[in-house]
């Protein structure tokens, strides 16, 4: 059973070498998982317009009473949501601001599409965030605001507090992304330096307007104030920020203005109570959907399956080693599954960067780490890791795929996998091996997908 579209642009190259049966199965599983995580389809399934009545899930809005509709969105999975809304609502959309990552293809007719930088913010995202806030302040009683805030919005929609410059916010971002903090910790700090995150965008929308959050989760457990934080109340505090900065020993590395701001007794806490606003929340694509879909597809293909966890955190290289230990257990003891099997995991793993390093991303590092231990396994096994948005770390690769033939080729090329793993130089190595997975921007952004295929 195939899917309506193949997301993998270099499928032929990936199938031109190695264990083709394993690779074909792995690529089919990836395509199916990405299709199931498609926010365009999810929006079309949730939102409809009939006889001037707008239906969103179990909600109904009579557009005689709600004459103005706006779209405010930012993130790597936001464009498909906005596109679907435009096709459903047409010129009933009065205005909109949608901020996406550079490379996003397509156009919007009723909303302004801005492109900006991710994961480090830039001036384009800063200007777009200002426009979004200005539009929010123009809302009136009876308006409907569709908020499509998805993963990546923290960088793409950046509006620092007046005490902090954009350049200083960039420094903070870089420190947080390389210190080993998880996404909850990273976002806790970032939204306490923001005028738009942490509920501030919702705070500036009229209390008698309706905010409809349509979001795609890339955070473990789907906590709303970390996946659509500009338009819901915040549960974190400045005290939480201080604990995180202490934990990762970041105080001495922060710009002086940031230290002064966090220590200022007059600073304003993020909104904790937005009950005076009319906010309706819909997680249209949950964070674990790629894992669920991968298992569904693998079962249809005749594999025994197991989702180990959709909530993996920690260092990618440690998880790669762990997955190989599971593979050994299958091969030696036929547990927790008998082959042929697919064992699946998801979540948001990280890379700790110190000193000089190469180019890569958490999912490529997961695969390379597994590859270091793959050589000793004689059975037919493949290991896969992808970032579902199509860009793993700061690279244009979605992830990578390895089997034992990758190890053989690396030896012939004189490549030390362990040495390159230590340098976090995954992208260059997988490019030489022909094992990078290229999808381009997928239009979705849920938790990472990692799995092993054993024949």
Q: How would you describe this structure in keywords?
A:
alpha/beta; Rossmann fold; six-stranded parallel beta sheet; 38% helix; 20% strand; glycerate kinase, domain 1; 455 residues
| Cα radius of gyration in angstroms | 22 Å
Low-confidence stretches: none
Total discrete domains: 2
Order the strands across the largest sheet as they lie in space.
6-5-4-7-8-9
Distance between the termini: 19 Å
How many β-strand runs? 15
Question: What integer is the average pLDDT?
Answer: 95
What do these coordinates show?
- The chain is of the alpha/beta class and 455 residues long.
- It folds into two domains: 11-36 and 288-454, 3-Layer(aba) Sandwich (glycerate kinase, domain 1), CATH 3.40.1480.10; 39-159 and 194-234 and 270-285, Rossmann fold, CATH 3.40.50.
- 38% of the residues lie in helices and 20% in strands.
- The protein contains 18 helices and 15 strands.
- A six-stranded parallel beta sheet has the order 6-5-4-7-8-9, sandwiched between helices. It has a six-stranded mixed beta sheet with strand order 10-11-15-12-13-14, sandwiched between helices. A three-stranded antiparallel beta sheet has the order 1-2-3.
- Helix 2 (20-36) crosses helix 13.
- The two termini are 19 Å apart.
- The model has no long low-confidence stretch (mean pLDDT 95).
Secondary-structure map with pairings?
Elements: H1 11-14, H2 20-36, H3 39-46, E1 47-50, E2 53-56, E3 59-62, E4 69-74, H4 78-89, E5 93-101, E6 112-116, H5 123-137, E7 144-149, H6 153-156, H7 166-178, H8 183-191, H9 200-203, E8 210-216, H10 224-227, H11 238-247, H12 256-262, E9 278-285, H13 289-300, E10 304-312, H14 316-333, E11 341-347, H15 362-374, E12 381-386, E13 399-403, H16 404-412, H17 417-422, H18 426-433, E14 436-437, E15 448-454
Parallel strand pairs: 4-5, 4-7, 5-6, 7-8, 8-9, 10-11
Antiparallel strand pairs: 1-2, 2-3, 11-15, 12-13, 12-15, 13-14
Helix pairs in contact: 2-13, 3-4, 7-8, 14-15
């Amino acid at each position: 059973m195939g899917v309506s579209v193949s997301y993998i642009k270099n499928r032929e190259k990936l199938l031109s070498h190695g264990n083709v049966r394993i690779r074909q199965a792995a690529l089919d599983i990836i395509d199916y998982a990405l299709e199931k995580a498609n926010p365009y389809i999810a929006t079309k399934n949730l939102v409809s317009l009939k006889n001037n009545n707008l239906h969103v899930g179990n909600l109904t809005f009579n557009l005689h009473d709600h004459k103005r509709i706006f779209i405010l969105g930012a993130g790597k999975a936001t464009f498909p949501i906005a596109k679907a809304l435009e096709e459903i609502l047409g010129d009933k959309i009065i205005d909109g601001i949608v901020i996406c990552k550079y490379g996003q293809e397509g156009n919007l007719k009723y909303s302004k599409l801005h492109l900006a930088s991710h994961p480090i913010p830039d001036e384009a995202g800063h200007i777009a965030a200002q426009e979004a806030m200005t539009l929010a302040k123009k809302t009136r009683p009876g308006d409907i605001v569709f908020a499509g805030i998805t993963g990546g919005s923290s960088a793409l929609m950046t509006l620092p507090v007046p005490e902090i410059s954009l350049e200083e916010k960039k420094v903070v971002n870089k420190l947080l992304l390389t210190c080993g903090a998880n996404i909850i910790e990273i976002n806790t700090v970032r939204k306490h330096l923001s005028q738009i995150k942490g509920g501030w965008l919702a705070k500036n929308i009229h209390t008698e307007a309706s905010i409809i959050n349509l979001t795609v989760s890339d955070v473990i457990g789907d906590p709303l104030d970390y996946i659509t934080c500009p338009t819901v109340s915040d549960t974190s505090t400045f005290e939480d920020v201080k604990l995180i900065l202490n934990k990762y020993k970041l105080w001495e590395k922060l710009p002086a203005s940031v230290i002064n701001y966090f220590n200022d007794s007059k600073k304003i806490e993020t909104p904790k109570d937005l009950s005076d606003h009319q906010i309706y929340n819909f997680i249209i694509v949950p964070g674990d959907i790629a894992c669920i879909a991968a298992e569904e597809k693998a079962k249809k293909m005749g594999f025994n399956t197991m989702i180990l966890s959709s909530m993996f955190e920690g260092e990618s290289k440690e998880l790669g080693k762990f997955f190989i230990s599971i593979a050994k257990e299958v091969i030696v003891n036929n547990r927790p599954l008998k082959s042929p099997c697919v064992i699946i995991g998801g979540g948001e793993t990280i890379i700790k960067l110190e000193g000089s390093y190469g180019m890569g991303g958490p999912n490529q590092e997961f695969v390379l780490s597994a590859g270091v231990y793959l050589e000793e396994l004689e059975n037919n096994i493949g290991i896969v890791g992808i970032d579902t948005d199509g860009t793993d770390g700061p690279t244009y690769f979605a992830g990578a795929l390895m089997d034992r033939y990758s190890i053989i080729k690396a030896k012939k090329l004189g490549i030390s996998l362990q040495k390159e793993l230590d340098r976090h130089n995954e992208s260059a190595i997988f490019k030489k091996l022909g094992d990078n997975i290229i999808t381009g921007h997928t239009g979705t952004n849920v938790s990472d997908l990692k799995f092993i295929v054993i024949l």
